[in-house]
Fold these 4 entries.
Entry 1:
Amino acid sequence: MSTLKVTTVGNSVGVVLPRELLARLRISKGDLLYVTETPRGVELSPYRPDFARQMDVAEAIMRDNRDVLKKLAE
């Protein structure tokens, strides 16, 4: 595990990702990252438009069928 320092970036704050981490994630300047809250903390992952579309569809289905899914979970 490595640590990242929070720093000022213009009028905002941000973190600088080390070159090694950028290489492992296969990302570069201008790429998008997903930020996901997990039980263990925050997870960063490369943005994937196909996955984003799938998640949008899944969220809509879960929202529209909330009662059915709740019954199935019992």
Entry 2:
Amino acid sequence: MRVTAVDHRPTRVAGASRRRSPAATVRAYVALTKPRIIELLLVTTLPTMALAARGLPPIGLVLATLGAGALAAGAANSLNCYLDRDIDAVMRRTGRRPLATAAVSPREALVFGCTLAAVAVTVMAVAVNALAAGLTLVAILFYVLVYTLGLKRRTPSNIVWGGAAGCMPVLIGWAAVTGTLAWAPFVLFLVVFFWTPPHYWPLAMRFRDDYLSAGVPMLPVVAAPAVVTRRIVGYSWAMVACSLLLWPVADTSPWYVGAALLLGAAFLREAHQLHRVAAAAGDARLQLQPMRLFHASITYLALLFLAVGLDAVLLG
């Protein structure tokens, strides 16, 4: 499904990307990598490595995996900025990104992203193992080619299937420690997979007009708030169920189960509350406060994976 976009290209000053200080250049390139997203991805990697090792993995392996993983995520995000530079320029939320402001040229962003990807996969292959390197390459290609190029501008389900790229760090972390895959990392993969829509759709609800003007058919653009929040509730229940499935699959302790239940109950309460407000408000979008669930989702994921890591290190 496509949403018609308006002409949004702002006027750029010729040579603007050339007139910048070294410090400003560094900041621009760092911004291309979307550091806050990288932090969230690494939050899921280290606890998964601890679960795979049933304790603390070797520090050298941890540093190599997290370092290469950060480079890979930065590469994918930089290439995403390159491909989405037209819509980033029209959206208020992304209008200050380096390509939208001409702080970095498209060619520079493309070269930077490809270089980071090559370094990330190479480091993962040399310092970790071939399986982790292969999964890293798949994650980059999936995010850039499947999500950014294939799904984002074509279907309201873009973030659902495209979000699979953000689930890959748990597989990479497990493969880094064991050199193989097992059911436990796939359960964690599903936790992140079902977490992604309840995490991202509230943000898309908040910035619905941005996505509408950019021609991106996020679900909140094409569906009523109550429809969006009903799906958020459904994915939230699936997420919590998968978090509990880790108990029998990975032989976690009752302590982890208790933490997962408490965190899941708190998350479900927020999701149901947002749906109740949406159902009562009808199409009065201004009455909704979706960002509360957005921020709660970040806290949930961080604390759940902290519980995974602590359970493996202290009770494994």
Entry 3:
Amino acid sequence: MANIERFFFEHYGLTEAGLARYLEAALSEGGDYAELYFEHTTTSSILLDESLVKTATEGISMGCGIRVLSGEQTGYGYTDDLAPERILKAAKIAARIASGPARLSSVGLSEIANTHDIYPVASPATERQLTEKLELVLRADHAARAYDTRIKQVRVSFGDQVRHVLIAGSDGRVVTDFQPLTRLGVFTIAKDDSKLQSGTSGGGGRVGLEFFQNDHSPEYFAGEAARQAIVQLEAREAPAGEMEVVLGPGWPGILLHEAVGHGLEADFNRKGISAFSVASELCTVVDDGTIPGRRGSLNVDDEGEPTQKTVLIENGILRCYLEDKLSAGILKTSRTGNGRRQSYEHIPMPRMTNTYMLAGNDDPEEILRSVKRGLYAVSFGGGQVDITNGKFVFSASEAYLIEDGKVSAPVKGATLIGDGPSVLTRVTAVGNDLKLDPGIGTCGKDGQSVPVGVGIPTIKVSRLTVGGTSVGKLQSFQ
């Protein structure tokens, strides 16, 4: 097993015989399936605040999670000590939790070669000098401050990791992967008299430091964060009421991810708590874990299954759900490569990778010109979503009024209120300008966080509730 020998065998003395022994221990109390998930992660991070390096860290973590499935029951144990006796103890704990009638006396293992190679990284950022990363951070800080004298505070963060994983199952499959991840973020605060406003930007993906050049330079992200803060200084209070809303391309796809995507994860559907059925025929939504270099992409998911492009909604019709091994087994469907976990300490569950809506045929400028009175939401900040029914409240971090078909004044304090299933039925135009986010997304679910990507073209929603503070302005939207 070449990959095992190259990393896990060399570093931790793992052998094929040892893997088989751990799996047999995991099934010693019965059970249908057992799985070993070995993980070794190298990380570094820098935080610059007020032009001072507040933290600079490097670290290594490793461990093994052991899962046993018995029907719908899951047993899980883990250890951060890879000594054989500690792994065996975790395996026996998982075995006791998910004991069952099935029993496997021996396990024969065979390494499965990855069908994808989607991380175009010549030199992982974790192998570069900390001074090279600090230079990127300092460049961003300088560029943000130089943008406008009203930028009074800048915070820049940089983080990278490389995760080596080995996944061995009692079905005999052994899969390994090497997963790089890099991210740069910029946060600014602008002040004008007594007014304070903030802006954020950033980017990254499964890339190396070479990513931060040209269109993805630290200066670009710093300029975007500073621009957003300055725009908000001039913004008027947002209107409130039900109106037409145009969502800009790219990062606004976070609304699609949160309000729609979670409802299409199979664990909600096998529990009977998903609210999804159909959408506008203009809407086709996919989840694709195979896009090279993207933050949400993976060669294999955290169960060792190759990722794929999965059509969730096609021309408004629900086609399938995102499946992990457990849900696919219960629902008698095929796995989609969406079994994901935060680390070896966590059980896998159905999660999104890169989720986006396909481009349509409409000209984005024509979409805007078709709106007499409405809101143009360009970027989102925080929000709250009930993922069992898709109901959401999102705060727009950058938004503008649309008046007589023209984008006019910026507004602040705008929130979008609704539910994902209803929003998709009200989509009346889809632009030809699909854009993916710059590579900053992290998704939380059941206490676990994983990196994801989102995307959307310009779309028009015929009716959506906008929460704001300017009641007097509401009249012009009726």
Entry 4:
Amino acid sequence: MRWLTYEITFVGRAGAVLCSAFDDCKISIGPYSTTLRAEVADPAALYGLIERVAGFRLQVTDVHLVPSH
């Protein structure tokens, strides 16, 4: 199985609680947004991750596949 890496960016800065909820992702916090980077096995896993973000009522601004090298 080939895992793919995706980044999901949402508005706002993630705090400690949110970071702990996504401890399976690499988290980058910027001044106005937060980006989660995760390896997913399939589209269903990606959708599940997006649903987790949406469950916190966060506004997703970008979802994209990270090119493999």
